[in-house]
Amino acid sequence: MFIYEAFKMAIAAIWSHKLRSFLTLVGIIAGIASIIAVMTGISVIQGTIEKEMSVLGTQTFQVQKWANGPTTREERRKIMRRRPTLVKHANAIRERVKTVDLVGSELWSQNRHKAKYRDISTNKNLTVCGATPEYPENNTHYVRLGRNISNEDVKVSRNVVVIGFAVAQELFPWIDPILKTIKIDGLKFQVVGVLEEKKSAFGGNFDNYMLIPITRFKRIFGMKDSRGRDRSVNITVRAKSPELLQDAVAETRAVMRMERGLKPHEEDDFTIFTNDSSIKTFNEQTAAIKVGAFVIGIVALIVAGIGIMNIMFVSVTERTKEIGIRKSMGAKRKNILMQFLLEAIIMCNIGGVIGVAMGFGLGNILSMLTDFTATVPLEWAVVGLIFCTSVGLSFGFWPAFKASKMDPIEALRYD
Predict the structure, then answer these.
(1) Pick from 90, 92, 152, 200: CA 20 to 30 A from residue 287's CA?
(2) How many CB atoms lie within 10 A of CB 414?
(3) pTM score, whole prediction
C-alpha cells in the first residue's frame, strides 16, 4: 500500500512542475532515443543483409579463391597471388567427399553484357554465369518456368540459356520466352528456362543475370577475365544433411589442401564460407558501430542523470516543510527515501518510454524509404528502460538520502 501511495505522490510532484520535469526529461529522451534509433537502424539493415546473405542453402557452402567480405590492402595482394580454383577441384570434391551430394561449378562475367530479342534489347549491364546443373539447388534460386541447364547441355556445350526474371520481363513482356532465340553479345542462345524473381533491397542483380552451360562460357569468354587474370571457379557444395555440414566442410578442406599440394604448416590458399560465416563477418563489422552508439547513449544518460540529480535537490529544498510535516506525523526515513527515489525513477522511465518510441520511429525511417523490412528490437527497449531505472536509482539516491536525513524540527522551521 505504501508503494502505491508513494507512486501517486511522485506522479503528483512531477505533474505539478510540468515544464521543469519536461526539460529534465529531454536528456533522458535524447539518450535513449539515440541508442534505440541506432540499434533499430542496424537491426533493419542486419535483418535484410542476413536474409540476402542466405543465398546458400542451410547445408551448402562455397569454395573459392577470393575472400568473403572486406579485406585490407595487404590481404588483397596476398589473395590475388593465390592460384585459381578449378573445375578439377570440384570433381575431386565430388568423387572423394562422402558427406556431400551436390557439387557445382560457376564462372562469372559481371555487369557487362547485353541481350536482344528481335528489336528489343537490354542495357549492357547483364551478368552471365557459366554454371552446372547444381546451380539452382545450391544457391536457392530456382527455375520458375521451363527447365534448368542439364548435364547433357554441359557435356555438349549447347547454346542454351536460363534467363533471370528481370531479363524475361524486359525481353518478353507479353509472350512465353521458352524456346525463343535471343542474342547475348551477338551470339545466339535458345531460352530454356526463367529463374524465379529474387529482389534485392540493395538494388542487387539477382534477377538481372543469365545462366549458360559452364563449357559454353569457357568457349566464349575463355579462362581470362577482362583484366587478363585467370578466371577462378566458384565451387558450391551441398552436404547430405545440415547435421553433416561441418564434417563436409572439414573433409572438403582436406581434399582441397591435398589437391593443391599444401604442406601441413602452410595456410589455406582458398576460402570456404557458409551462410553463418558470412553473417558472422557482417556482425563483426557492425560491432564497433553498436558499441559507439551505446557509449554515446550512455554519456547522454549520465549527463541527463546529473540534471535529474540537480532537479531533485531543488525539489527536496522546495519541499522541506512537507518533509518536516510528514516526519512529524510518523513517516520514517525509508518512507521519505522511497518517495523521492520513486519520483526520480518514474521521471527517468517516462523519458525512457518516450525515447524508446522515438528511437523505433527514427530507426525505421530507413525501412520506409527503402525495401528494407521494418524491425522492432524489443530486447533493446528492455535494455533502455533498465538503464533508465538505473539512472534514476543512481542519481536520485543522494537527494532522496538527504531528504530522509532531515531533522523534522529544522525542516518545519524552514522558510
Answers:
(1) 200
(2) 12
(3) 0.64
